Task: structure prediction
Amino acid sequence: MEENPQAEKPKKEKIPRQKMPEQNVSARIRNFNEVPLGYDPETAQREARRCLQCKNPQCVDGCPVEIDIPAFLQLVVDGKFVEAAHKIKEKNVLPAVCGRVCPQEDQCEKQCILGIRGEPCAIGSLERFVADWEADQGETILPSLLPPTGHKVAVVGAGPSGLTVAFDLALLGHDVTIFEALHEPGGVLMYGIPEFRLPKAIVKREVEFLRRLGVKLYTSVVIGRTIEVDDLLKSGFEAVFLAVGAGLPMFMKIPGENLNGVFSANEFLTRVNLMKAYDFPDVDTPVWVGKNVAVIGGGNVAMDCARTALRLGAKRVSVIYRRSRSEMPARHEEIVRAEEEGIIFFFLTNPIRYLSDEKFWVRGMECVRMELGQPDSSGRRSVKPIPDSEQIIDFDTIIVAIGAGANPIIASTTPDLKTNRWGYYIADEETGLTSKPRVFAGGDIVTGSATVISAMGAGRRSARAIHKLLMESKKV
Amino acid sequence: MNFQSVGEILDFAVAKEEQSAQFYDSLAAQVRQESMAEVFRELAREELQHKAKLLEVKQGGTFQPAPEEVADLKIAEYVVDVEPGPEMSYPDALILAMKMEKAAFKLYNDLAVSTKDAVLRGTFLALAQEEARHKLRFELEYDRNVHQDDY
Result:
């Protein structure tokens, strides 16, 4: 029968965005288990059916590693969940991680056409669902590797960028060794992001997958101290990829930051996430948390610190942020969860000194009220103190979560590695090649603190460049 | 300090800029990281630019305070002092620079208050405002990069 060109296309079923179930508030503030519980298969398929399968999918443009989002969503609709996971893995080696911690609302979901009139398709939640589904099926199928090339590459740092470069180079047949300074691989995924946002078993699963691909991994090796970059190059590694992250805590340099009870977010979260201090004395590392905690900052790390302190038993946890709620850089959903959990927010407030008791423990802070000005060149509204607005607020623990910078260890022992004035390595944007021949770099140590997925994108670009270098050079 | 003329004030200000440039040059020679040496060389060059501007004024150029009030983020006031040395980081350098500009601002402001001569007072206030602008530049750089609010 001839098709009637005038016939109307069947109207697409109107499905609201599917909400992911969560642990209820009263339960979750007493445990470290993950807060969102994930979709079941029916809900995932219902959500995936919302995708319009655009011919020119804007969501793909919004993804830093250009996952074929419509294709994986269609596979979900078709019930081919494992195949959907494989489709994502063509571009992203850590889908279970990215499904949880990527700011999709600023990336793929921001570009989704559905978002113009309603809510965008829940791409991140579906990415998480298929990755978890694949893992739940048992051992994941290993991709086929190209024959061994005999070329050796060292990767320094086992965070998102390092893991990605190792994965890509292993697939291409290269002999990859990762050196990690901490005793567990995963970088910021292990030490920075709390269990209730990213269960560590997921990170371990992804690292194990790399090991099965033949990637060698040495932990507790501080490159720049235990071994220097030049030693790696002299010992047979033909290329080195530096992916050490930006783990140096920033302080405001105001009086009292050296008092007992004042932590950097890095120290606080590392003790809890990596060292499992919440199980002390069953584990070796304790953590101090008072009853009345202040967290300085307005980003995801500040939210993580505040919610962690609450789970460790603090009676009152406050976030001190110098701008207003709408300027907070934290993900909206994390701010909402923090509010639900009873975190108190002091907006337009900034500490100017911490106060000591007679035993040099912090007992509070002097703050000033701030006012917002015009946006600067970056679009962020300037902020300045209001004269004579000082006030004292009592706290017994302070966690400073204002940002992180470049760790100077490798740069200080590698003289021909050029850095900018903030200590970040200068590297070619496309290849990651640094000023030092055969040494590449990517992720936060080049760009400053950024997202997991952008660090992975940098790893992918450098893997291509390293592969090209190795294949063009004679075997050492 | 007893100044009798605008020329004397400008000579004093020129000498201060020259001293600052020499101080930054000496730090450029001390620091271990080349990127930090370049930071201090850049700061020294800026001081020499200020000096050149003052010499221009002395030779008949105009020297008017900026029409609008210069914002004070008060970072120089709130942060602790840093000790100059070979391991200085860029945030340390910014603190050092903003505090030097703040001290110069205070000096010129105090001199303005202590003089009865309107012309001399105007010159001191214009110099103070210049220093306030320099301080603001360092405070903004510090604010944007150290107070990231997140990571």
Remarks:
- Residues 118-146 of chain B form the longest helix (29 residues).
- Chain B touches chain A at residues 32-36, 38-39, 71-74, 78-80, 82, 89-91, 95, 140, 143-151 (CB under 8 Å).
- Chain B has one domain: 6-61+71-146.
